[in-house]
Design a protein that fits this description.
By secondary structure, the protein is α+β, with helices and mostly antiparallel strands. The protein has one domain. The chain is built from four helices and 18 strands. A hairpin with a 3-residue loop joins strand 11 and strand 12.
C-alpha cells in the first residue's frame, strides 16, 4: 500500500506542473500568484483523488473477497448435498437389491438378478420377517372350480425380453429386475420411487380411465385375457396401463387394492416398453404398497417370470395380436391372494395379513385402462398419451385394445362369468369403451384412445 501511495504522489507532482504550465491565466492576475494558486488547487484535487482511490481499494477488496467466499461456500454446500443424496441412494439400493445367486443381462438393458427365495424383498416386511415362502411344489393354492387350461394365452413361458437371452434362474431362486441409480434419480424423491403419486379416484388428479367393473357382491377373485400394446407416453410424468383391480373398502383413506397387468411408465423404467407389473395398497396409495417388488409384501414363487420386466412380443395394428391371461384370487386354504399369469403360471401371492378389508374379500372388481394426463392443470391442452392401442374402441379387433372372457370368483371358490358389467369412461372424447358378449369370448370389451384429438383438444 505504501509503495502504491508513493507512486500516486509522484504522479501528482508531475501532473501539477504540467497542469499549471498549460493553464490560461487571467489578464489581471499576477503570474507568480496564479502559479502558486494553481499548484495549490491541483494538489488539493489530486490529493482527493488519491484518498478516494485508496479508500476504494480498501473497501472494494473485502467485498470482492466476501463474494468469492460465498460462492466457494455455496459450491461446497452443493457438493455436500449431492454426496449426501448419493449416499442415501446407494443405501436404498443396497436395501432393495438383494444378493444375486446369478445375474442375467437382458437384451433391453435390464439386469435380472436371481435371488434366493428366502432373501427376496417380501421378507423385509415387519409382518413377514422370519417366515419362509410357501413353495408351489409343496403347498400350491387351490384353484377355482371351473377353471380350465383351454385358453390359448401365453402358451410359452418366454414372453419377456430377458428370457430371450437363453439364460434362466435356477430352482429355489426368483428373478428380480435390478434397480439402479439412474432409476432412483428419475423419481421426485427416494421415498416416492415406485409409488403412485395420487389416489386413483381423486377428482382432477390427472388420472383418466376407461374401465368395466362389477360391484354389489362379495368377490374372491377376477380373471380375464387382455392383449398387450406399446402405447405412446408423452413424458416421464405420465403412464399408460391396462390391468385388473381387486378393490375393497371405501374410496377414502381405507381403500385396499390389488392390481396386476401391463404398463408403459418412462419414469419408473426409463423406456417405453410395456412391462408386466403388480401393485397393492392398504391405505388408498398414501403410505403403503408400491409397484412390483420395490417394497416388501408380495411373495414371489416363480423362477421364470420377472415382475417389472418388458413383455415381448406385442400386438400390432391390423396384425398379430398378442395377449396374456391374468387371474387374481383368494386361496381358500390359507386366505392369501394369488396371482396367475398366462395358462397356469403361478407368479406368487399377497399375504392376507398385508390388508385390512381385503383380508376378508373384495367388494368390487374392475378391468380396463388408465393414463395420467400431466398437462390437465398446466397448459389446458389434453395429453397425447395413448391408452391401449391408441385407437378408439369402435375400431374393433386388430385395431383396438380388448379384455375378454371376464370372470369372477365367488365365496365358494367358483369361477363364474360376469353378467352385471358396468362401463365408465370419464373422458370419453379422449378414451372410450364398448362391451359385448359371444360364445367364444364370453363377456368382453374394447377400450382406449389417442388422447388429444379434434374432440379432445
Amino acid at each position: 500500500m505504501q509503495r502504491y501511495l508513493e507512486q500516486i504522489l509522484s504522479f501528482t507532482n508531475i501532473y501539477t506542473i504540467f497542469f499549471c504550465q498549460n493553464k490560461k491565466l487571467g489578464r489581471h492576475q499576477k503570474q507568480s500568484t496564479n502559479m502558486a494558486s494553481c499548484f495549490s488547487m491541483a494538489r488539493v484535487f489530486l490529493a482527493f483523488l488519491v484518498v478516494a482511490s485508496s479508500l476504494g481499494h480498501v473497501f472494494s477488496s473485502p467485498l470482492l473477497s466476501d463474494s468469492g467466499d460465498r460462492q466457494r461456500a455455496n459450491h461446497t454446500k452443493e457438493i455436500q448435498r449431492l454426496k449426501l443424496k448419493l449416499r442415501r441412494i446407494n443405501a436404498y439400493l443396497n436395501k432393495i437389491n438383494k444378493p444375486a445367486f446369478k445375474t442375467i443381462q437382458s437384451p433391453d438393458g435390464d439386469v435380472i438378478d436371481c435371488v434366493l427365495s428366502h432373501l427376496q424383498p417380501a421378507f423385509d416386511h415387519p409382518a413377514l420377517q422370519g417366515q419362509k415362502p410357501h413353495f408351489v411344489q409343496e403347498d400350491p393354492p387351490e384353484r377355482p372350480n371351473g377353471y380350465k387350461y383351454t385358453e390359448a394365452v401365453a402358451e410359452s413361458e418366454s414372453f419377456q425380453l430377458w428370457a430371450d437371452s437363453g439364460e434362466s434362474c435356477p430352482e429355489g431362486t426368483v428373478p428380480i429386475r435390478r434397480t439402479r441409480q439412474k432409476d432412483i434419480q428419475r423419481a421426485s424423491s427416494i421415498t416416492r420411487y415406485g409409488r403412485r403419486r395420487v389416489r386413483r379416484d381423486s377428482t382432477g388428479s390427472g388420472h383418466e380411465h376407461a374401465v368395466a367393473f362389477e360391484k354389489g357382491d362379495e368377490y374372491y377373485g377376477a380373471k380375464a385375457s387382455l392383449n398387450v400394446w406399446a402405447p405412446r407416453v408423452c413424458n416421464e410424468y405420465e403412464f399408460s396401463l391396462s390391468q385388473i383391480w381387486i378393490i375393497s373398502g371405501s374410496f377414502g383413506n381405507d381403500l385396499n387394492t390389488i392390481e396386476a397387468g401391463w404398463q408403459v411408465s418412462p419414469e419408473l423404467y426409463g423406456d417405453n416398453n410395456p412391462r408386466f407389473f403388480t401393485f397393492w395398497t392398504t391405505d388408498a396409495y398414501r403410505a403403503t404398497g408400491c409397484y412390483n417388488l420395490l417394497c416388501s409384501g408380495f411373495i414371489q414363487t416363480n423362477n421364470k417370470v420377472a415382475i417389472g420386466a418388458a413383455i415381448s412380443p406385442t400386438s400390432s395394428y391390423n396384425g398379430r395380436q398378442f395377449e396374456i391371461g391374468l387371474m387374481v384370487w383368494k386361496d381358500p386354504k390359507h386366505g392369501n391372494w394369488w396371482l396367475e399369469l398366462g395358462s397356469g403360471i403361478l407368479v406368487g401371492y399377497w399375504p392376507a395379513i398385508l390388508f385390512s378389508h381385503l383380508r376378508s374379500h373384495a367388494n368390487m372388481i374392475q378391468f380396463g385402462g388408465e393414463i395420467v394426463n400431466s398437462r390437465s392443470s398446466s397448459s389446458g391442452l389434453h395429453t397425447s398419451t395413448q391408452m391401449g392401442s391408441g385407437h378408439f374402441a369402435q375400431q374393433g379387433f386388430g385395431k383396438a385394445a380388448y379384455f375378454r372372457n371376464l370372470q369372477r370368483v365367488d365365496w365358494d371358490n367358483n369361477l363364474l362369468p360376469i353378467t352385471n358389467l358396468r362401463l365408465l369412461a370419464d373422458h370419453s372424447n379422449c378414451y372410450d369403451i364398448t362391451q359385448g358378449r359371444n360364445n367364444l369370448w364370453g363377456t368382453y370389451f374394447y377400450y382406449g384412445g389417442p388422447g388429444r384429438n379434434v374432440r379432445c383438444p
